[in-house]
Amino acid sequence: MQGFPGQGVPATPWLNRPVPSSSRQRAVTFSLAFAVAAVAGLVWVYTQPPIYRAMARLQITPSAGVAPAADANHAPAVVTNARSFLTEVQILTSRPVLQDAIARVARDSRPPDLGPDPVGAVQRMLHADPVEGTQIVQLSATGGDRQFVAPLVNAVTEAYRQHVADAFQGRAMITDSNVAAEAAALNNKVAAQRDALNAFSQRYDIVSMARQENDVLAEVDGLSKSYTAANERLAKAKGRLDALKTGKAAIRPKDDPTLAALQQRASLLREAWRDLQARFTPAYLALDPDAKSLQQQLDEVEQQLKSQAGAGDRTAVAEAQQEFVATQAAVDQLRNDVADNQKKAQEFATHLNEYKAMSDDLDQLEAMHRAAVDRLARLQASAQERAPQVEVLEAAVPSRQPWQPDYTKEAALAIGGSVVFGIFTTWLVGFITGPRQLAPVFVQYSWSPAMLGPDATIPPPLLGVADIPRLPSPEPPARELADAEIAVLLASATEEVRLLAAGLLTGLDADELVALRWDNVDLDAGVLRIDGDAPRTLVLDQPLRSLLAAQRPHQPEDAVSVLRRADGSPLTREEIARLILFAAYDAGLDRPQEVTADALRCTYLSFLLRQGIRAADLEKIAGSVPQTDLVALMQLHSPAIRRPLDDIERVLPALRDIAAGGIA
């Protein structure tokens, strides 16, 4: 017996006892166990009562409803749904249907004894299984009487068909009666509303909804038009009178015949006088008696023109004054008439609005009556189409072979089980009657010799090779935070805690943060030099660089710690743990006591390992990691492909988001 190469392991007493079992003893034990198990199994198999099964296939089209048609020229739409089909499947095995089916079977043959509740017994025998995506149902019955199950399924089918037809006929009669009653009631309401409308129109002398067809409104409209026209005439008369009074208007000759005659005579005399002036000299004309007479006549006619024009103006003013007074009287009379009829018109308009409302109600009642009559007609016309249909696709036939049990299959299983039982019994008897040599198996780990030393004595193993796959996965050394938790933690933390968290999530551990000094930080070059057990140089990425730059003006000295108390002394590891715990609690994280500096560092190590960083490159970023923690993390995060350091993303996504959004 050996453990690790080159290491002897002393044998224990319980592993060195002899094994006194023989082949004959095992054969006898196996035979007896096999025979007992086989006989018992076969007896159990062949003493099971046979169960027969009969099955029929039905296509059920449930009764459909009638959807309103788009117009009177279209046929009614028939509406069905899956819920109606499932309801019919439940009715198929309901108590009323099964009672009728049992009675049908009893009329044709003698059914077996079904106990005090035949319907319940039949319900337990029947199964209705819808075929998904179709309206087909598989109706099956199982029982011990081969001559009963098939007639039962067929009787249930016929009983269900009759039940569906009777139920639909009853529902159709009730529906038609209800719709007919509704149509009759609406017809009565229409007649009553029409009589009320006619009585109202006769009472208030309403001819129609048109205003011009009603005498009252037509009279008011006529008075309004006359009043408007009279106002226009009054305005014209007033304007003419004012123009005549101010001399802005003159009498036209056609309006005064005397004036027209005088103007014509004066025109002739002026023409004759101009003719004499053209032929004779003024001296001759002054001596000629005819010329003097003509001159005298012209003067007399012009004097008459002036007199007649003045008389015409006075007459025109008088006539215009008379017309204005008459028009003013007409306007006043029309104004009084309009005022007298205004109240009557308002009352009539109120009655007309009431008439319109009653007419609208009548139209609505007539529409409802037409809809009810149309629905009744469509129900009567589509009764055959809406009727449920039950079609037997495959009737049930008597079964020749039992459905259950499968004697051949179960007998084979019994024989196989007997063989297994015999083998187990043989092993158990051998284990009980005598000891046997056990071959121990050790699990070797590559790190065991180094840990135990070359002269170490290895105790007997507690686990075999078969137990190794059942070992639980190693637990991570600390809690790993999610990106959302990191974002919440940094968003609600103080500047000091943000700097701590950013450092732990960049590759530093708590001791390195405590020992970090400003002479290790080069903000201009963007690097961070770490001293101690794992010296290295890190690239200052965001947001750690911004956080250090914001802290730098408060501590201008170089040879001091970056993280300090108020008195200037550096923070301790315990104070860092307390600050992180307080920040996790204030951020409302789950299990804040698990959010520690090690948890933040473990989160960053897991982020690097998931990307496939090489183990040798890990120390260049994160420094020294305890071997037990590193082994556990490698087993949890171990991708198949290893990537060089240049291909590794060093900034966590949560930190990238904070750097992109700025430090609050």
Model description:
This protein has about 675 residues and is of the alpha+beta class. It is about 60% helix and about 5% strand. It has 21 helices and 9 strands. It has helices spanning about 25-45, 80-90, 95-110, 120-125, 145-205, 215-245, 255-280, 280-285, 290-380, 385, 405-435, 450, 485-490, 495-505, 510-515, 545-550, 575-585, 595-610, 615-620, 625-635, 655-660, and strands at about 50-60, 65, 75-80, 125-130, 135-145, 390-395, 520, 525-530, 535-540. The strands form 3 sheets. A 4-stranded antiparallel sheet has the order 4-5-1-6. A 3-stranded antiparallel sheet has the order 7-8-9, with no helix packed on it. Strands 2-3 form a two-stranded antiparallel sheet. Helix 3 (about 95-110) packs across helix 4 (about 120-125), helix 5 packs antiparallel against helix 9 (about 290-380) and helix 7 (about 255-280) crosses helix 9 (about 290-380). Mean pLDDT is about 75; it is low at about 1-20, about 70-80 and about 435-470.
